[in-house]
Amino acid sequence: AMYEAKDAGGAQYHVYHDDMYQRVAQRVMLESEVRQALAKNQFSLSLQPQLSAQDKKLYGLEALLRWHHPERGMVSPDDFIPIIEKSEHMIELGYWVIRRCFELSKELRNKGYKDVRIAINLSAGQFSDINLPQYLSTLLAEFVLPANSFELELTEQTLVTDIEKAIDTMNNLKALGFTFAIDDFGTGYSSLAYLKRMPVDVIKIDKSFVFGMLENHADYQIIMSTIAMVKNLGLLVVAEGVESSAQLRSLTENECDIIQGYYFAKPVPEVELFAFLDSHIDE
Ligand code: C2E
Ligand code: CA
Ligand code: CA
Ligand code: CA
């Protein structure tokens, strides 16, 4: 038994070591590829509509990054963002995303979609970058756009690293007029005590709770009590990952404010955005 345990331990270590090596190699490769990909315009955004549950009006669009890799095809953000998350390349890529969102917001206004917010995902590294507030305020002036055209999405994960600094940055950006959403709510270290101190406007219930909400009693209860709590705090609540009319009905009956999910629309490639909005959305 001793030997078995030792062997197992040894093997595990070996696997771990290989895996670690692979991950380092993969990260280094991805990081250099990201810089090239930026230069070669391999990134684009897809925009996923968020609709008001009650009247089905367009509330906002979440910007989701897409990478068209020449050999690997479409690379999902879940497959490369976590890997390069902490590198300067993610910050550079993040700035590219932000600028693109400003361009799109300008285009939306010019085409008459005045009150549609663009939700921008910010990674931890991006949010703690000291240049972020300056960058954002420069863009506001350059594009002549009100800051409340944008909703900055932060995850609980992003916020726990240095909570005092995060609150400070949020307050600075809030003073410029930006709005904030807490993404993937319920999956991280949701400290309700901190939530109270943050200038948050929107809470997004994670899709993992929504998927099984009508089959799983616990998921259902978590969603319904989150909706009640968020509304009692005077904030807006978004449910993401809504795929069926039954989920939509249940969420609407329970006064969820905003719905995002495949039931209404999958993320729309930016080149198709205006055609999509013109044919699917009554303003
Ligand atoms: P997220 O911020 O939680 O975004 C929602 C994800 O759920 C998106 O996946 C979206 O396509 C997917 N989704 C929405 N509705 C449904 C539905 O009804 N059913 C199912 N099965 N999925 C649905 P996506 O586009 O693959 O993005 C994955 C994650 O990558 C995002 O999760 C976000 O964490 C990250 N990400 C994407 N774009 C950016 C970005 O520009 N910056 C940063 N920092 N992260 C990003
Ligand atoms: Ca998000
Ligand atoms: Ca989410
Ligand atoms: Ca997520």
TrEMBL record:
It comes from the Bacteria. Residues 27-281 form the EAL domain. This is Diguanylate cyclase (GGDEF)-like protein. It comes from Thalassotalea piscium. The chain holds residues 522 to 804 of 813 of the full protein.
